[in-house]
C-alpha cells in the first residue's frame, strides 16, 4: 500500500533547520507492506515525520500489538530513500528476540518495496549482537558463557596476536576474522537486509566472521539494529557507536525502562571478593611488568614515550580489538597527557594497589555510609595521597598498559578493570552520584558481607551524549505514561509528545479495577495489611473465580518474590491452591532463569492443549518484560497489588531525594509513576494485536485513584463503572465480556473502523483537510490553527471552569 | 510516659553494644583469618579472639598487643623479631590501617614526601614540566619505598627542601586554605539541603491542611440552602488558594536556587588570590597595646598626712609595703573607667596634672 504523508511545518525555536531546501517540503511517499493500515499507525507516522522534519526529539506511546515497529520502519525507510541526505537509522531495542523481530520486519519491508518499486534499492540493514550469538569459530562458539566467548575471541583476533604471527611465532588465529582483511573494507557484505540467521549463513558460506562484519560495516549501513547498551553504556558506546554521524535518527523502542538502563550503565558495585581479585590482578600485573622488563624493555619504554606525549596518541589503536572498557571521559581530558606519577608502568601498578587497599579498608566499616564523590576523594587523599587527577586517568591508563603487556587473557583482570572504571567515574563526576556502603545484606544479617555501591542517581548523564549528538531521538513504547515524566527525568526538550488510543471495532479488552473482595473487605497489598487473612483469602478467591471462567491461560503478577512466596504458602494452607488445581495447572516464576523458562514452556503447552494454566509471576521479573502472552497464552492478567519498589532500599531513597531536589519530582509521584508503568507493562502482555482479546484486572484498592497514570489506550477503555468493583461483580463483568468475545468475528467487521484500506485512508485525509479549511475560515481572525487531532480540546483554564460553575449556581 | 520509652532505650543500648562488638569482630577479621598467630609469643587468635595486632613504623613488624605491653613497657627496646635490630618505643606502636603491610609503609613514606614535594601545577610554566616533576617525585618515593639508593635519594630530598623552602611553606598554606574552603562549602551545601527539605515539608503540610479545610468547607456548603452556589464558591476559593500556594512555592524555590548559585562565600574569591606575605616583625605579646596612660601623669610624691606613718614606719616597710605602689594603684583605679564614655569630652594630657589635687584631697578627707 502506497500513500503520501503531508509536510506539516511546526515551529520549534530550539532547532532551526534553515539549511533544508524548500523543495523538500513536499509530501512523502510511504510504502507500507500490508494492504490495510490501522488509524493509529497512520497517526504515528505523521507525528514521526513531523519530528524528523523539525529535527528534534519525541516521545510516542503506541498501544502494544498495533504494529509499532513496522510503521516506524516503513516511515523511516521512506524518509531515507526520499530525501537525498539518507540519514542513517539506529534502532535500539531491548532484547535479542525483539531485535531479531525488527530485522525480520525490515527484511519483509524491503522485499515489499522492491516488488512495489520494481527495482532493488541500494540498502544495507544489519543487526549487531554479542559475539556469543554471532560466532562461527568451531571451538569458540561451543563456549556457554558470553564473557568466555569474548575473551577467547579476543585472544584469536587481537592486533598484537596477528603481529606475533607475522613475526613467525606459533599462535592461533581465527580464520573467519582473517578472511575479512582480504575483502574491500567498505564492502564486506553485499547490500541487503540480514537477519542474524542470514548473517550466520552468509558468514559460513563465505568463511567470514559475522560479528566483525557487522562491526566494521556499521558506518556503511542505512539501518543498524542493536541493543540499547551499545549506545547508552558509555563503556561500550565509546567503541561501537563512535563513528556514527550526527544526523542519524535514533530510535529507542520499548523505552519505558530507559532511565533504569541509563542508571545501571553508570553504576558499579564492588564486593570484597572483587577487591581480592583486583589485588590479585595487581600482583600479576606487577609480575608481567617484571617479565617484560627483562625480555622486552623497549616496548614499555615506547609506551612510556607515547604517554609523555598525550593520551590521544597512545590510544590511536583504540579499535575494535581494544578489549577494555572505558567510561566517558570529557574530551579535554583525552587531549591531556597522563599525569606524571602514573606514567611509568610500575608506578601505575603501585598506584592501583594502593587504591585497592584503600577500598579494602573502607569495606571494614560496619555501619552504613553514604557519601558524595568529593568527600570520598577528600578522605582518599588524606589517607593514601591519591590525587583526583591521576584517578581520572585510571581506566585509560590500565587499557594502555594491558595493551602494551599484550595480555590476551582478560578474565583475570576483570575485577581490576572494574575498580579502574570505578576510579575514573568517581573522579570525573561530582554531582548525580552517591557512594553507599552497605555492610550487611539485610537488616537482620549478622555476618557482614559488605557491598560498596557507586550509584548513579541522574539518568540524564548517560543519555546526554546521545541527545547532544543526534538530531532526532525517538523514544517509544507501548506503555510510557505519563509522557511528561521522561523529558523531565532525562533532561531533554521534545518536539512531539503523543499517546495514541487504540481503535477497535469491538471492545476487545476489558480492564477492571477490583477494590474489594466478595465480602466487601478492601483488598490491597499495602504492607500493613498484606498478610491479613481476609486480604489473602480474597485474593485467593479472585484467583479461583478467574481460573474457573478464563479459557486457557491466566497470568497473575505479584509486586515481589517475597510477597508471592508468602501468599502462596498461605494459599496452600487455606486450600485455595487445591481448588485452583481443579481448573488449571499452577506454575511459578522463580529468580532462576532456567527454572522460569521451563515453567514458561510447560505453561505454553498447557495453554495449547486445553488444560489451561495459571502462571504466577513477579511484576518486575523476567516474565513481565519481553514475554508475550498473546491469544490463548493469556486471556486474563491479574495484577495483585501495586508493584511499588522496595522503598527501604538506600539506593532508591538517594535517587528519590536527588529527583526531588534537582528535577522537582516528588517522591510519591515518582514511586507511583514507576509502579504504574510496571503495572501497565504487565497488563500490556496479554493484548498483542487487534484480533486478540483479554481481561485485565487490577486488584488493589489503591488503583482506583491511579487511572490517569495508566497509558491512554488502557485508561480510555477503563469505564468509570468498572473502577470500583468487588470480586463477584468483576466475575460477572468478565463472564459477560467473554460471552461477547465468543461471537464470531470477521476481519470484514473491522474494515474502515480499526483497519483502513487505501480508500479509507484517502477519505480520512480529505476529511481532515476539509476540517482544517473550515477551521481556518472560522479562525481567520488570527487565532492559532490547531492540528487536526484536537488534543488540546479538554484543556480548560481555571477561569473558564469557574465561570461555568458560577452559571450552574 | 517514661515506661514505653524504656524498652527502646535499652534496645538501642543493646544495638550499640552489638555494633561495637561487630566492629571489634570486623577489626579482627580485617587482619585475615581466625587462626592467625602472633609471631612473637605464638599465641593464636583461636585462643584469644580479642587479640589485636600493632605495628611500629620503624620496622613494620607485626605483634600482638600483649607482646607490646610486655616488651616495651619498661622503655625502648629492641624489636623481638629475629634479625631486626631496630630500637622501638611503645608510644609509636599503632594499629594497622591497611591490610597489606607494604602499603602501610608506602603511605608513611608518602606522607613524608608530600610534606616536602608539594608544588602545584601553577608553579610550572607548562603541563609537561609539571608532569615531569610528578614523575620525579614518584621516582623518589619509589626509591625510598623499595630501598634503592637511599643515600642519594635522601640527599636529593634535602637539596630540594633547601632550595624550595619558601614555596613549600606557601603551598602548605594554600593547601590548608583549600581544605578550609572545601569544608566551608560542604557545610554550606548541607545547610542549603536542610533548608530545602524544610521548605518541602512545610509545603506538603500546608497542602494537606488546605485539603482538609476544603473538605470541611465543602461539607458545610452542601448543608446550605443554595448548595450549588455555595459549593462553587468554596471550589473557587480552594482553587485560588492552591494557585497562590503554587506561586509561593515556586518563588521560594527560586530564592533557594538563587542562594545556591550566588557567590555566597568569599572563600572562592580569596582562594585564587595569591597570599601576600607580611614582613616578619619581632614578637609582641600584647599585640600592639599601648600601656601608657593619657589621662594622668603619675607623680613621685603625694602629700598625704594619712600616709606619713606608713612612709616612715619600719614595720610596714619590712613587710614589703610600698606607699608608691599604693598611690599608683589608687590613681589608676580612679581613672580606669574614664575612656569608656563616648559622650565625654576627651581629656587631653596637659589637663591631667590638675586632677591630682582633688585626688589628693579625696584621699585626705
UniProtKB/TrEMBL annotation, chain A:
Keyword Transmembrane helix applies: no
Subcellular location: Nucleus
Gene3D superfamilies: P-loop containing nucleotide triphosphate hydrolases
A GO BP entry: nucleotide-excision repair
Cofactors that this protein relies on: [4Fe-4S] cluster
Coiled coil ranges: 275-317
Catalytic activity: ATP + H2O = ADP + phosphate + H(+)
Gene Ontology CC terms: nucleotide-excision repair factor 3 complex
Domain Helicase ATP-binding, chain residue ranges per copy: 27-303
Enzyme Commission number, as recorded: 5.6.2.3
Domain of life: Eukaryota
Any GO molecular function: damaged DNA binding
Broad class of the protein's primary localization: nucleus
Family: Belongs to the helicase family. RAD3/XPD subfamily.
Protein name: DNA 5'-3' helicase
From TrEMBL, chain B:
The keyword Zinc is annotated on this UniProt entry: yes
GO BP terms in the entry: nucleotide-excision repair; regulation of transcription by RNA polymerase II
Cellular location(s): Nucleus
Record GO terms (molecular function): cyclin-dependent protein serine/threonine kinase activator activity; zinc ion binding
Pfam families, per the entry: MAT1 (PF06391), zf-C3HC4_5 (PF17121)
Ranges in a coiled coil: 189-259
GO CC entries: transcription factor TFIIK complex
Taxonomy, superkingdom: Eukaryota
Keywords: Coiled coil, Metal-binding, Nucleus, Zinc, Zinc-finger
Lineage: Eukaryota, Fungi, Dikarya, Ascomycota, Pezizomycotina
Every RING-type domain range: 38-81
Protein's UniProt keywords contain Zinc-finger: yes
Name of the protein in question: RNA polymerase II transcription factor B subunit 3
Gene3D superfamilies reported for this sequence: Zinc/RING finger domain, C3HC4 (zinc finger)
SUPFAM superfamilies, per database record: RING/U-box (SSF57850)
PANTHER family noted in UniProt: CDK-ACTIVATING KINASE ASSEMBLY FACTOR MAT1 (PTHR12683:SF13)
Amino acid at each position: 500500500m502506497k500513500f503520501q504523508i503531508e509536510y506539516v511545518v511546526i515551529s520549534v525555536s530550539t532547532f532551526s533547520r534553515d539549511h533544508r531546501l524548500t523543495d523538500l517540503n513536499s509530501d512523502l511517499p510511504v510504502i507500507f507492506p500490508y494492504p490495510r493500515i490501522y488509524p493509529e499507525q497512520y497517526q504515528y507516522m505523521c507525528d514521526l515525520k513531523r519530528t524528523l522534519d523539525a529535527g528534534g526529539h519525541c516521545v510516542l506511546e503506541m498501544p502494544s500489538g498495533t504494529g509499532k515497529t513496522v510503521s516506524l520502519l516503513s516511515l523511516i525507510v521512506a524518509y531515507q530513500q526520499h530525501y537525498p541526505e539518507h540519514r542513517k537509522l539506529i534502532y535500539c531495542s531491548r532484547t535479542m528476540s525483539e531485535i531479531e523481530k525488527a530485522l525480520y520486519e525490515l527484511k519483509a519491508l524491503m522485499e515489499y518495496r522492491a516488488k512495489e518499486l520494481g527495482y532493488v534499492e541500494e540498502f544495507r540493514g544489519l543487526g549487531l549482537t554479542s559475539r556469543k550469538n554471532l560466532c562461527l569459530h568451531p571451538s569458540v562458539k561451543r563456549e556457554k558463557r558470553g564473557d568466555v566467548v569474548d575473551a577467547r575471541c579476543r585472544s584469536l583476533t587481537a592486533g598484537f596476536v596477528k603481529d606475533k604471527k607475522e613475526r613467525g611465532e606459533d599462535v592461533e588465529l581465527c580464520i573467519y576474522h582473517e578472511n575479512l582483511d582480504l575483502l574491500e573494507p567498505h564492502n564486506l557484505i553485499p547490500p541487503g537486509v540480514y537477519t542474524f540467521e542470514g548473517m550466520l549463513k552468509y558468514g559460513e558460506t563465505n568463511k567470514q566472521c559475522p560479528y566483525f562484519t557487522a562491526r566494521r560495516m556499521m558506518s556503511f549501513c542505512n539501518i543498524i539494529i542493536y541493543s540499547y547498551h551499545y549506545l547508552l553504556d558509555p563503556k561500550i558506546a565509546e567503541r561501537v557507536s563512535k563513528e556514527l554521524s550526527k544526523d542519524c535518527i535514533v530510535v529507542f523502542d520499548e523505552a519505558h525502562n530507559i532511565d533504569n538502563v541509563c542508571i545501571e550503565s553508570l553504576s558499579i558495585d564492588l564486593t570484597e571478593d572483587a577487591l581480592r581479585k583486583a589485588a590479585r590482578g595487581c600482583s600479576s600485573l606487577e609480575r608481567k611488568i617484571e617479565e617484560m622488563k627483562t625480555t622486552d624493555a623497549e616496548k614499555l619504554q615506547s609506551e612510556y614515550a607515547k604517554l609523555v606525549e598525550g593520551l590521544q596518541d597512545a590510544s590511536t589503536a583504540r579499535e575494535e580489538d581494544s578489549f577494555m572498557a572505558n567510561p566517558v571521559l570529557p574530551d579535554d581530558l583525552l587531549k591531556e597527557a597522563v599525569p606524571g606519577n602514573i606514567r611509568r608502568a610500575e608506578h601505575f601498578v603501585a598506584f592501583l594497589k594502593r587504591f585497592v587497599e584503600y577500598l579494602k579498608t573502607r569495606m571494614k566499616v560496619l555501619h552504613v555510609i553514604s557519601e558524595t564523590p568529593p568527600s570520598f576523594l577528600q578522605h582518599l587523599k588524606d589517607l593514601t595521597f591519591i590525587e583526583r587527577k591521576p584517578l581520572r586517568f585510571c581506566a585509560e591508563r590500565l587499557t594502555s598498559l594491558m595493551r602494551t603487556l599484550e595480555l590476551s587473557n582478560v578474565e583475570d583482570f576483570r575485577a581490576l578493570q572494574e575498580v579502574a572504571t570505578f576510579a575514573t567515574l568517581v573522579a570525573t563526576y561530582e554531582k548525580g552520584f552517591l557512594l553507599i556502603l552497605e555492610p550487611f545484606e539485610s537488616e537482620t544479617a549478622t555476618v557482614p558481607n559488605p557491598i560498596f555501591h557507586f550509584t548513579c542517581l541522574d539518568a540524564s548523564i548517560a543519555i546526554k551524549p546521545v541527545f547532544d549528538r543526534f538530531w532526532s531521538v525517538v523514544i517509544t513504547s507501548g506503555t510510557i505514561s505519563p509522557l511528561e515524566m521522561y523529558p523531565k527525568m532525562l533532561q531533554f526538550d521534545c518536539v512531539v509528545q503523543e499517546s495514541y488510543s487504540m481503535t477497535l471495532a469491538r471492545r476487545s479488552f476489558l480492564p477492571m479495577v477490583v477494590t474489594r473482595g466478595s465480602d466487601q473487605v478492601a483488598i490491597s497489598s499495602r504492607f500493613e495489611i498484606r498478610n491479613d487473612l481476609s486480604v489473602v483469602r480474597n485474593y485467593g478467591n479472585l484467583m479461583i473465580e478467574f481460573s474457573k471462567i478464563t479459557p486457557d491461560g491466566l497470568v497473575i503478577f505479584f509486586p515481589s518474590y517475597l510477597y508471592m512466596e508468602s501468599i502462596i504458602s498461605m494459599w496452600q494452607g487455606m486450600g485455595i491452591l487445591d481448588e485452583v488445581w481443579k481448573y488449571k495447572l499452577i506454575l511459578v516464576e522463580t529468580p532462576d532463569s532456567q527454572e522460569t523458562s521451563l515453567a514458561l514452556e510447560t505453561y505454553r503447552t498447557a495453554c495449547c492443549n486445553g488444560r489451561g494454566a495459571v502462571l504466577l509471576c513477579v511484576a518486575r521479573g523476567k516474565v513481565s518484560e519481553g514475554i508475550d502472552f498473546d491469544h490463548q497464552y493469556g486471556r486474563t492478567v491479574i495484577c495483585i497489588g501495586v508493584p511499588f519498589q522496595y522503598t527501604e532500599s538506600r539506593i532508591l531513597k538517594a535517587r528519590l531525594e536527588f529527583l526531588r531536589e534537582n528535577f522537582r519530582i516528588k517522591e510519591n509521584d515518582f514511586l507511583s509513576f514507576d509502579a504504574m508503568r510496571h503495572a501497565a507493562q504487565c497488563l500490556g502482555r496479554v493484548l498483542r494485536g487487534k484480533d486478540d482479546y483479554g481481561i485485565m484486572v487490577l486488584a488493589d484498592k489503591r488503583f482506583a485513584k491511579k487511572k490517569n497514570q495508566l497509558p491512554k489506550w488502557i485508561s480510555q477503555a477503563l469505564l468509570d463503572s468498572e473502577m470500583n468493583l468487588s470480586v463477584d461483580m468483576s466475575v460477572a463483568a468478565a463472564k459477560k465480556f467473554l460471552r461477547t468475545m465468543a461471537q464470531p468475528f470477521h476481519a470484514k467487521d473491522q474494515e474502515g473502523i480499526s483497519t483502513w484500506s487505501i480508500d479509507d485512508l484517502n477519505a480520512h485525509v480529505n476529511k481532515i483537510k476539509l476540517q482544517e479549511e473550515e477551521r481556518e475560515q472560522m479562525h481567520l481572525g488570527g487565532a492559532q490553527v490547531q492540528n487536526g487531532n484536537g488534543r488540546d480540546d479538554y484543556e480548560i483554564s481555571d477561569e473558564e471552569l469557574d465561570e461555568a460553575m458560577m452559571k450552574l449556581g | 510516659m517514661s515506661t514505653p520509652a524504656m524498652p527502646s532505650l535499652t534496645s538501642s543500648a543493646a544495638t550499640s553494644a552489638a555494633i561495637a562488638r561487630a566492629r571489634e569482630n570486623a577489626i579482627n577479621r580485617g587482619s585475615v583469618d581466625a587462626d592467625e598467630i602472633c609471631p612473637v609469643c605464638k599465641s593464636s587468635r583461636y585462643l584469644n579472639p580479642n587479640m589485636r595486632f600493632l605495628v611500629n613504623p620503624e620496622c613494620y613488624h607485626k605483634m600482638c598487643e600483649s607482646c607490646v605491653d610486655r616488651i616495651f613497657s619498661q622503655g625502648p627496646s629492641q624489636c623481638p623479631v629475629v634479625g631486626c635490630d631496630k630500637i622501638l618505643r611503645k608510644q609509636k606502636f599503632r594499629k594497622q590501617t591497611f591490610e597489606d603491610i607494604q602499603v602501610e609503609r608506602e603511605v608513611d613514606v608518602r606522607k613524608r614526601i608530600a610534606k616536602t614535594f608539594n608544588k602545584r601545577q601553577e608553579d610550572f610554566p607548562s603541563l609537561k614540566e609539571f608532569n615531569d616533576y610528578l614523575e620525579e617525585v614518584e621516582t623518589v618515593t619509589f626509591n625510598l619505598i623499595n630501598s634503592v639508593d637511599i643515600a642519594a635519594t635522601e640527599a636529593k630530598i634535602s637539596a630540594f627542601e633547601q632550595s624550595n623552602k619558601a614555596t613549600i611553606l606557601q603551598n602548605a598554606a594554600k593547601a590548608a586554605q583549600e581544605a578550609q574552603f572545601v569544608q566551608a562549602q560542604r557545610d554550606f551545601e548541607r545547610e542549603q539541603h536542610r533548608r530545602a527539605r524544610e521548605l518541602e515539608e512545610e509545603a506538603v503540610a500546608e497542602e494537606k491542611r488546605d485539603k482538609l479545610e476544603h473538605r470541611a468547607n465543602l461539607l458545610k456548603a452542601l448543608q446550605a440552602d443554595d448548595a450549588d452556589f455555595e459549593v462553587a464558591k468554596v471550589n473557587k476559593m480552594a482553587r485560588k488558594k492552591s494557585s497562590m500556594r503554587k506561586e509561593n512555592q515556586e518563588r521560594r524555590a527560586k530564592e533557594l536556587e538563587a542562594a545556591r548559585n550566588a557567590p555566597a562565600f568569599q572563600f572562592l574569591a580569596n582562594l585564587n588570590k595569591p597570599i601576600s606575605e607580611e614582613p616578619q616583625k619581632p614578637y609582641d605579646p600584647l599585640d600592639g597595646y599601648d600601656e601608657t596612660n593619657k589621662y594622668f601623669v603619675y607623680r613621685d610624691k603625694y602629700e598625704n598626712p594619712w600616709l606619713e606613718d606608713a612612709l616612715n614606719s619600719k614595720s610596714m616597710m619590712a613587710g614589703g609595703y610600698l606607699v608608691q605602689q599604693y598611690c599608683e594603684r589608687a590613681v589608676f583605679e580612679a581613672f580606669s573607667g574614664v575612656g569608656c564614655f563616648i559622650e565625654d569630652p576627651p581629656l587631653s594630657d596637659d589637663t591631667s596634672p590638675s586632677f591630682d589635687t582633688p585626688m589628693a584631697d579625696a584621699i585626705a578627707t
